[in-house]
Sequence to fold (446 residues):
Amino acid sequence: MAREQVLEGVILRRWTSGEADRVVSFLTPERGKLRLRVRGTQKPNSRMGLLTEPLNRLSARVIEGRHQRLLVQPHLLRTYLQVRTDLERLSAALALCETLDRWLAEEHAEPEAYFTLIQALERLEQGGDVATIVGWALWRWLAILGYAPDLSRCRECGHPITGGDWQLDAGGCVCARCMPSRPNLTALSAEQVRTIHGWLLQAQPPQEPVVGAERLVRAALGYAESVVDAEPRWLTFWERLNALRESG
Amino acid sequence: MVFPPSLRQLIAQLERLPTIGPRSAQRLALYLLRRPEEEIERLAEALLNARRLTRLCEQCFFLSEQPLCEICQDPTRDRSTLCVVAEPRDVVSLERLDQYRGLYHVLHGLISPADGVQPEDLKIRELMERIKREPPQEVILATPPTVEGDATALYLARLIKPLGVRVTRIAYGMPVGGELDYADSATLGYALSGRREL
Fold:
């Protein structure tokens, strides 16, 4: 007997499957990330293709049979049209979706991670500072998933974070005196470490832009590489866009 | 499997084709076995010829047997308009319309970093060189309304606009004959933002 449930969620990623179907990664607050088949998305008269695009928030019926799980009757709750007309916002939003898809295990409910994504997408749609939103979301997710580093003092010498240069690795925060700088880790000021510390605890996205937030994004990625998984590729593309913009 | 080895080999080769599963491969193989030998020879010859003779047009990267495709060679084509599409099949769709008389440029994909496709994996560098060499008056971006299509169009617009060329994108929204009542908010949003003056 097939089990049916109506769930709300966000499409994180999608892949074509066969001639006309899609497989989507659907993030829900109640059941976490689900891989679901959507039938007939590529057919010319199907409305399912547009509805099951990444970034869309849907309410949909999930049918679980013996061999496969289907997403049917999607109803669009929210789409981010402003995000989709701005290259930086679009690539940042897709990077956030890809990051969660890579970092979360299937069927492992993390409602806070879901609501962090929703809030980040809403702030991106409203025109908030892209790097600040991305940085906040990445550090917040690391905290939610239990990977928050200890940012109270140097893990080697116990020196409190009052000044100087700092680096973050899998073990926590290390001052420049205890560890020579490594190319894959980003050097941070004490002020920047304190900003990250705030973001780890902050459930709402920052309203004001943080100067040098790109550096905090890079630090999050460097740190995440040592504790979670390889770098999300849309973030690399977004960083390339930033570099292009800065070089004029 | 009880089939003889040669038939098993045919089924295995057919299964490698996109959208063909084991059952379809078996059905196709058994169908081919029932056809006259000359018909199978013609099919094999057509496959080999298509593979050996078809290449990419040096200018637009559509499929061709010559260095330049029929569209690029056609002197009656409007050279002031360039339509950028993702795949060769998109050229076929637009040509079927019989409304567009300009030239094309096929990217052979869309920007999709999550799937490992970066701008340098597409024919973007060639597009930019082409625009600089023979600047058109207008570049029409005919990428699909997917997130990758949007990202590719926005990326190209950013590269082309500084060259002083008009950049447009094909409209999306309400289907012809569709009713507002039945449209979802994404479709309506696209239709509304792409409205035009009458």
Observations:
- The beta strands of chain A are 3-17, 21-28, 32-38, 57-64, 69-78, 165-169, 172-175, 188-189.
- Chain A is about 40% helix and 25% strand.
